[in-house]
């Protein structure tokens, strides 16, 4: 925890571009003051088949899952930083969106070895 899931289509079309997006997310999350870099997990899921109602031909959508407890202000600042970082690296991306979700700490369980 926290978990960052990058969903994308039509934009991150090479392994290098996927890696660049993941590095932006890791760097921005790790320097946010909201979490420790070493706790961050980033993964990317690409879609070949997608249809956007507004006719756009590509997107980057980032879902961030954090244990509950951060303020709305912290989450908004994180979302803005992530969006700006992705926009800097992928300025021609037709759509970049961020969604930050709280995870219930009572229900979240993990095991590390």
What kind of sheet is the major sheet?
A: 4 strands, mixed
CATH superfamily: Macrophage Migration Inhibitory Factor
Number of distinct helices: 2
* Low-confidence runs: none
Radius of gyration: 14 Å
Terminal residue distance: 15 Å
Summary tags:
alpha/beta; 4 strands; Macrophage Migration Inhibitory Factor; 2 helices; four-stranded mixed sheet; globular; 113 residues
Describe the structure.
With 113 residues, the protein is of the alpha/beta class. It has a single domain, classed as Macrophage Migration Inhibitory Factor. Strands 2-1-3-4 form a four-stranded mixed beta sheet, covered by helices on one side. The longest helix is centred in the C-terminal third of the chain and has 18 residues. The mean pLDDT is 95.
What secondary-structure arrangement, pairings included, does this model have?
Blueprint: E1 3-9, H1 15-30, E2 41-46, E3 59-67, H2 72-89, E4 96-103
Parallel strand pairs: 1-2, 3-4
Antiparallel strand pairs: 1-3
Helix pairs in contact: 1-2
Summarize the structure in short.
With 113 residues, this protein is an alpha/beta fold. It has helices at residues 15-30, 72-89; strands at residues 3-9, 41-46, 59-67, 96-103.
């Amino acid at each position: 925890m926290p978990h960052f899931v990058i969903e994308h289509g039509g934009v991150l079309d090479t392994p290098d571009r996927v890696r660049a997006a993941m590095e932006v997310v890791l760097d921005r999350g790790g320097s946010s003051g909201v979490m420790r870099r070493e706790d961050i997990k980033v993964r990317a899921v690409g879609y070949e088949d997608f249809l956007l109602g507004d006719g756009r031909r590509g997107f980057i959508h980032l879902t961030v899952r954090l244990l509950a407890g951060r303020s709305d202000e912290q989450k908004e600042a994180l979302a803005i930083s992530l969006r700006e970082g992705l926009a800097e690296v992928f300025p021609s991306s037709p759509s970049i969106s961020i969604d930050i979700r709280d995870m219930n700490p009572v229900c979240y369980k993990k095991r590390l070895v």
